Amino acid sequence: LEGGAPPPPEDPYADDPKDRLPALIVRSARPMNAEPPRELLTGSVITPTEVFYIRNHLPVPRIDEAQYSLRIEGQGIKTLDLSLDRLKAEFRKHTVTATVQCSGNRRNDFYAVKDVKGLEWGGAAIGTAVWGGVRLGEVLQAAGLDPGAEGVRHVQFFGADADGAGQAYAASIPVHRALDPRADVLLAYEMNGAPLTRDHGAPLRVIVPGTAGCRSVKWVTKVVPSGEEADSLWQRRDYKAFSPSVGWDEVDWDSAPAIQAMPVTSLICEPAPGARVEPEDLVTVKGYAWSGGGNRVIRVDVTADGGATWHTAELEGVEQEEGRNWAWVLWSAEVEVPGTPGEVEIAAKATDASYNTQPEAPGPIWNLRGVNCNSWPRIRIVAEEAQ
Amino acid sequence: LEGGAPPPPEDPYADDPKDRLPALIVRSARPMNAEPPRELLTGSVITPTEVFYIRNHLPVPRIDEAQYSLRIEGQGIKTLDLSLDRLKAEFRKHTVTATVQCSGNRRNDFYAVKDVKGLEWGGAAIGTAVWGGVRLGEVLQAAGLDPGAEGVRHVQFFGADADGAGQAYAASIPVHRALDPRADVLLAYEMNGAPLTRDHGAPLRVIVPGTAGCRSVKWVTKVVPSGEEADSLWQRRDYKAFSPSVGWDEVDWDSAPAIQAMPVTSLICEPAPGARVEPEDLVTVKGYAWSGGGNRVIRVDVTADGGATWHTAELEGVEQEEGRNWAWVLWSAEVEVPGTPGEVEIAAKATDASYNTQPEAPGPIWNLRGVNCNSWPRIRIVAEEAQ
Ligand SMILES: [Mo]
Ligand SMILES: [Mo]
After folding, report:
1. Interface predicted TM-score (ipTM) over 0.85
2. Nearest to A365 among B257, B264, B357 (CB)
3. Would you say the pTM of this structure is higher than 0.80?
4. Band of the pLDDT at A5, cuts 50, 70, 90?
5. Beta strands A220-226 and A69-72: pairing type?
6. Which ligand is nearest to the Cα of residue B55, counting in written order?
7. C-alpha B193: how far from its chain's center?
């Protein structure tokens, strides 16, 4: 009766970072999931850290760097506990320019088909950064992991972020990828030349280039070679896709593989949907295109007449080795709008080095969790005579 | 005036094999290009050698195995001349089950859109065999090729087949692929447990799993590590794809990469187009599905109602390691035809481990050489009441 209402239960998100860019579009505040307006993506091939999408599954842990230690343990290796200083001192620094994309990116295009469960991301849950750190494979070899070891098939990662029951975020990747120097898998402590920010995994995170963002575990505290994939819902359930005809009653989660390498995709970032132009105007269309697995984007085609004419876009990117094309390309094309006033649909499609290309429509790739939406991006603008 | 017409000029194809399966559908006789009827593909995961499609660019060379020698030469290595006996004695035998597909497979679906230049293959210019031989990488290492060698970026292959001017068939692959034990690139002397036949490259051919058939050079006589791709039309021009809006007048051959890993594809092999069924019948639909680059086919969906309902097919294949899924899968699904009599279109689509999937229609991927047609396979059958 004294002092009014009882104090609220402790807020697990109370210590989340406060310095997030106000321009970010928040898809969920607790945990924080936010993406930039899509037109902020085409400013430069490297996405500024503050513009980079934030995808958190749980409250952001606060880690004292001086106390931090990474544990390496598991099948057939000796246990290592590595402070950040020791990691930096004992292993060579390696930098990789890599795009990271959430598997739920562009889920809004699936919502337009049929309801799904998941954050309604637009197309900006993707970004490209220069990651600096040490090679995971070299650390595993220092722990004595034999590349030909029988029975070791995966490398599991555990984050410092945990749910109310203390269950840590966890995911895994195939061991051959972890060990392959050409796969450029990092234990990263830098993003765009600065120490990681808290939202992006400080003080240490995994970066698995070409692979779904959910495998690039943030705030990593433990690395475990194993015969099995990580035993988490994020590995065994959430990031998998099924036929459009499979619903929640029929789904057999084990029947599909965890998403690792991602399919070829692209987005139109400019002009804005609904933009007004005049008939026969030349419109500059801009966007990004990316493919997983190290596949280079070799071409982006743009149409403003329903596919009767395709314009090959100019591509801008960073020079990377064949098969290690981890970074997206930004693209730009001049497209003439038709001579008759009315709505104009602009569509694009990217092709990668394996000549995989994007499917036309989201319907045939719709899946109950709404992951890996990579159908042709489409926007509608309006052509009208000047007043 | 004596003896009538002059003798014909010597026929370069006179010595081609005479024992080809009569059931093969000949797309060109000189050089021989032939594929089996598609329903012969679904009998077993391993395609019998006599049923395997034949894709020759030139007359079939006749090579005396006792005289045969493979030369390894080029940048930064010592020249080796290896007889077949020496190759077998000095290097371990390795077998790989791998699908080989012509880049022109399914070109007939492009012809239906707009004219292209190339053999009008149906969908059976593909097959799967157990290849036996030695690892190319081990032979290159025996010649002293350093995996980290500066300036070596490709490995070129030359065949014993040559045109009238003596120009040998040639193609190349990236050097990292040639050296990677997980890529399983072979110098093969066996197909399905028997020595190679002449049509399939006797006595020795290259097998590059997951990669366009044109890189698996037959009758190989020379292997050359180099800074450059092979300087042949087959490498620099024929096997590349461009936008549907790029014609013969605009094409810039250097603007697209040579096809290496191939995109995900599938075919419906049964029932036959035009087959008669009754309304509401359950029809068994069968086919193959495959993806390049070692990506496993994880799912095939089949529809008989324009995509309103998708049936997930049963898959049959061989057990292979993740990322080394070189062999196709055969698939089978029971699909109910609609209750109203009339034409029924059956369509299918495959999804691979990177969640790439097939585009719906051939128009948006049409290209002037007609390569890499991987749109949804479609057939039409007829539902009519029994008389
Ligand atoms: Mo994600
Ligand atoms: Mo081919």
Report:
1. yes
2. B357
3. yes
4. low
5. parallel
6. 2
7. 20
